[in-house]
Structures are given as structure tokens and as C-alpha cells.
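[Q] Does anyone have a clean C-alpha cell version of this?
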Amino acid sequence: MTTSTSASRATSKRPAKPAYRCSECGWTTAKWVGRCGECQEWGTVTEEAAASAGPRTAAVAPTRNPARPIGEIDVETARATPTGVAEFDRVLGGGLVPGAVVLLAGEPGVGKSTLLLKVASNVAAGVSDKAASPDDATGPAPRPRTVLYVTGEESAGQVRLRAERVGALAPGLLLAAETDLATVLGHIEATDPALLVVDSVQTIASAQVDGSPGGVSQVREVAAALIAAAKERDLPVILVGHVTKDGSVAGPRTLEHLVDVVCQFEGDRHSRLRLVRAIKNRYGPTDEVGCFDLSETGIVGLADPSGLFMSHAGAGAPGTFITVTLEGRRPLALEIQSLVVPSSLTNPRRTTSGVDSSRLAMILAVMHRHAGVRLVDQDVYVSTIGGARVTEPAADLAIALATFSAREDQVMPPGTIAIGEVGLAGDIRPVSGLDRRLGEAARLGFTRAVVPRGSTPKPPAGMTVLPAQHLGEAVELARGGHLPPQQERTRFDE
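[A] Here you go.
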């Protein structure tokens, strides 16, 4: 009994084993390994000091911010303030909340710095890119404020040149080229800004923490210090973040948990269209999308981006059809173009741009089996306009009708759109948000819509809804033909 008790005491007094942590992703292990088991990087696992036993934080009496009844909390200080860029405010849920920390991530060259420079300039000048209207006059008018823009990737002169090019010069916009965390915190103390922009969080480092800038320990320390300053001063902060090869936010996963809002900046390098969507938002929705047009003269919000996805030159040509997709809650009209030509190859080509190739192969197989459209000896090319990407199955019917139009060299009646998912049995399945899609189509001047049978939204004024249950029916309705009486379209008179 005594021996076992002594052994247990000796075991309890053993020092904790040192932990090893990956400097890239933060993965920990009890022993050293040459390759990280999480991110599969070589030579990134290093030893870190063991944590001391026992509690390290003692309780103290709250003196600065004592607990108060929830009904006595002032909510006016937590109202969102517009940034001056309407499309960015749409994603944020109305603007920046005092003390909120926003992380904006995106690929290199997508336009993150240009967008935030425009936001900083508008906030500093107290202007907005949204036309004033009586409905918008619900709050105080914007006023000039002090904005601190910290750049760690470029020199101050380089940022000044870009600001001149995009028209983002404002007297209240202060620029600091710094990479030291202590100096950045000193700038905040000296300037007391109304908005802080850090470009980027991976370039800032603290001398009190080991590791290179952008490492797990450095990013964690920098983010924690900036978040503490934001909460203490009710200072909204926007952090620019890098992304990895797979498009996720670089750095430790805890960075996304610490911040209040995580936004993803997306866009094709060969297209002018840029999309900003919220992945996480504590103050607003996560299904809103902001659309921007990036050009040599700067970045401009697009309140009506449907024109980028439609080509007026292709109107009245075979192989074109219009559909309406949903980006979050936002309907966007999109033109699908298809080209079908005879093939001399054993395996005909199936080439896509902006459309999933496997989805196209499935639609072509359904057309061959259930609509009698022979495409096994034809090369099929399907593309979208404006660099848009089709990610939802609601565009299946438009792809099928555009391909049929190209195969038969037949022009579809003008003013017609198609919305619906094509099943493997040739049936047309309902899709979500059909009422918003039809409303956007009616606003753009379309008068006929081929939709799945069973969807019963009330059509907008001036629009005829043509329900189809099968792909063959959809083809006949789209080309302006007539069905037998038992298959006539349902009328929405109620």
C-alpha cells in the first residue's frame, strides 16, 4: 500500500512532457515529428515551453465595467455606421459596428487593398457612393472622421500612388507603413482614429513573441492585441488576411473565431466582376453578396450587376438562353451560351467555361435519353458571359435549352428565361427563391418564363409563367410551341 502511494506521488510530481507545435497551422503533438500531421508541411514542428502547473490568473474586483442589468445597456453606441460603400455595407449588415473586427480574405491581386482604400477614403471624407434619397434619411448625415491605414506590404509612396489613381485621397486619411505591433498600437494611441485598416495581419509582428511574421504564434498575438484595442476603444478594425492554396484563410483557425466578421473576396483574374460574401457575421446576415466592378480607375459597387452577365450582341442568335441565379439572397440574370458542331474525334469534346463539366455531361445524357437530342457525335462548348460561375442546379434547364437551340440552329423567342433543375429521369424539379428570380426577370423586361410544374408563385405583372414537368415539355414551351390540352400550362389567376 505504501509502495503504491509513493509511486503515485512520484508520478504526480513528474514534469509535464514538452509539447511540439506546427508553426504553420498550430497542430500539436507530444513528440517531435519531421512532418506536420495536419498541413503536411516538413520541418515546421518545433518545441514550445511547457505550461506551468496551477492557476496563473487571480480574481480581482471589477472596477471599470461592473455588471449591469441588460435593460440599462445603451444600444445607441452599438449602432452600425455606414462605410460609404453601399455594396460593402450590404454584406456587413448596414455598416461597421463600433468595436467590431472584420477579417477580409482573398487571393493576391483580387482587389482587397483597393476596396479598403476606397472604404477608408469615404469614411475619412464623410461621403457615400450611394445616391441620397428620402428613404435613406433615417440617421445622421456622414461626417469626416480620422482613419488610420496601416500597410505592411507596401511603402507609403506606393499606397499614395494607388490612392491618386482610384481617387481615394482624403485629408482625414492617415497612412503608416509599419510592421511592428508595438508601433502600430502607438499610432492608435497618438491618432485616436474612428477606423483602423491593417493590410495585412500576416505582415505585422511582435518583438515579444518568437517566430517569423505570418506564423501561428505571431498572427495569434497580433490579432489578440488589435482585438483588445478595438473592444477597449469601440474602434472598428478591418484586417486583411491571406489565403492558402485551397482558398481558405491562412493562419490559425482561432483567428476566424476571434474576429466578429469574416468576409471572402472572390473574383476571376480575367474578369472585372468581384464578389464579397460574409462567411461569418455576428451583426448581420451571411447570405448577402456585394458586387463590384474592378477597373484601372478603381473599384465601384454594382447595385445592378445583371448587365455584366448578359450580352446584347448575342440576342437573337442560336445557342443563347437566359436564367436567373441566386447569389445568397440576390437574384442575378445570367446568359448561357452553347455551341454544338460536328466532331471528328472518337470522344467528342465537352468544354465548359463557368459551368461544371460533370454537370454538363449529365445534362447532355438526359437530353439524349429523354428528349431525343443526339449529341454523341457532336462537340459541345458551353460558356457564361462576364466571367460568372454557375454553381447551383437551377441553371440546368437554361443549359439544356441553349444546347438544344445550338443543335437545331433555332433561335428561341425573345424575352424568355428558363429556371429549373433537370433530374436524371428528365423531370424538371422545383428550385428555391422562384418568386425573387421571376421578379428580377420581370424588372429586366422578360415576359415568358419556363419553370418547373408544381411551383406556384404569383407571376409579376406582364409575365407569363409556363410550367413544365418534363424536359420535352420545356423544349416545346421554350420554342413557342403548343402542348396537348391535358398538358396546357397552369394559369395563375388567384
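[Q] Thanks! Anything notable?
[A] The longest helix spans residues 216-233.
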